[in-house]
Structure formats: C-alpha cells, structure tokens
Amino acid sequence: SVSQPLKGMRQTIARHMKESLINSAQLSYSLELDITDAQLMRRQTSQSQNTTITLADVLIKACAKTLKRVRMLNSVLINDTVHYFDQINIGFAVSLDDGLIVPVLRDVGEMSTQQISELTKEVSAKAREGNLTINDVVGATFTISVLGSVDVFTPILNPPENCILGVGRSVKKPVVREGDIVIREMVTVNLTADHQVIDGSVAASFLRRFQSTIARPSSLFE
Q1: What are phi and psi of 188, to 5 degrees?
Q2: Which of 146, 193, 211, 214 has the fewest CB atoms lying closer than 10 Å?
Q3: What is the pLDDT along the chain (222 residues), one digit of tens a residue?
Q4: How is residue 180 annotated by DSSP?
Q5: Residue 222: which residues within 8 A CB-CB, separation 6 or more?
Q6: What pTM was computed for the model?
Q7: Which helix (H) or strand (E) is 26 found in, with range?
C-alpha cells in the first residue's frame, strides 16, 4: 500500500468541507429538468453570436432569475445572523488538477446570458492559470457546481452560503408529454440548503421555479 498525506489545496478543501458539514444542517433536494428547448436556443444563440454559450452559462442565468423570485436563498449565515442580498453573486466551481476552486461571478442578476458566458470564460481561464486574486473567490451568495459525468450527487455547502446547486449529466430519455412518449434531453439538479435557514418548502419553491424557467427558456436569451 501507499500512504500520501493531504497537502496544499487538497488539504484546505478537506478542512473546509469537514467544517461545512459540522457547522450546518445540510439537506438536499433533487429534481429532473427538461433542457431540450434550452439546449436548442443555446446552440442557435451561440451560432448567431459567433461564440460558445455553455449549458452552465444558461443555468447560471436561470439561477439568477429564480433567486430574484425566491430571495431567501440568496443569503449567507454569519455568527447566527442571516444576511440577505439584492445583488446576486454566484460562485462557479472550476476543476483544477489539484482540486477545486470557486471564483465568484458578481452581480449576474443584471447580466444577459451572453455576458455571463464571457465572464465564466474569463474567470475559468484565470483559475486554470493560477491568476485569481482573493477578491475573485470571496463574496458569493450562492454556488453552482456542474459535474457532467454522473446523474445525481450531493453538493456540500460552501460556507457562509446557505445553498449550492449541483448539476448532473444531461441524458436523452423517453418521457411522457401530453400523453405521448417522446425523447427529451433531461438533467437532474441537486440543491443542498442549510436547514437552519432554508425550510424545505422554500427550497422546493426555488427548484420548481427554476424548473419552469428552464423549460420555457426564451427569457434567458433576451
């Protein structure tokens, strides 16, 4: 056997995640989304704008729109005090060779999907080049983590945030629509929330609104 101590970024991540589980009452909720129309509009917009808008960009925009409606999730818990925000700063998990880092996309509630796409490309490049500053990784009020290789996973909160959304892989599968069996592209999202702050009914309301926004995606490409 081989023994290898945790060190560097991996050690920091391990400590941060352990403290997260100890200091919060984490509860996760899952829901399946129909992303067929959103994917079609994403590809059409990418082609017309001569750029590449990813599904993650679209989901970040949908999160921002939904957080404006369900504001309790756009919050942090510090010293037993909940702080709610109007500005939406979404952390976006970026995988690196030695771990995971979460740069912050600031004020995305006021951005178009195209603007969000440009920003995610910029911060992802900075992360992989090791050029992020402390200001680039603090101040998130909500986080999204896309893990496109599994269907379902349970994301761990990034304190002091009260919510994190995990996104699994997209899969084409048969579903029933208006009594007919059709093939649609589906993805499972997993919302972890701190039950000290976010009740189940509020978390469910967020997921349902998020689901509806993705299913009728025209407002995401205005």
Answers
A1: -100, 130
A2: 211
A3: 655 555 566 677 778 888 999 999 999 999 999 999 999 999 999 999 999 999 999 999 999 999 999 999 999 999 999 999 999 999 999 888 777 889 999 999 999 999 999 999 999 999 989 898 989 999 999 999 998 889 999 999 999 999 999 999 999 999 998 899 999 999 999 999 999 999 999 999 999 999 999 999 999 998
A4: E
A5: 112
A6: 0.92
A7: strand 26-34
Q: What is the DSSP string of 104-143?
A: EETTGGG--HHHHHHHHHHHHHHHHTT---GGGSS--SEE
Distance from the Cα of residue 190 to its chain's centroid: 9
Q: Of 103, 67, 70, whose CA–CA distance to 88 is shortest?
A: 67
Q: Tell me, what amino acid is at 135?
A: N
Q: Find how far residue 82's CA is from the centre of its chain.
A: 21
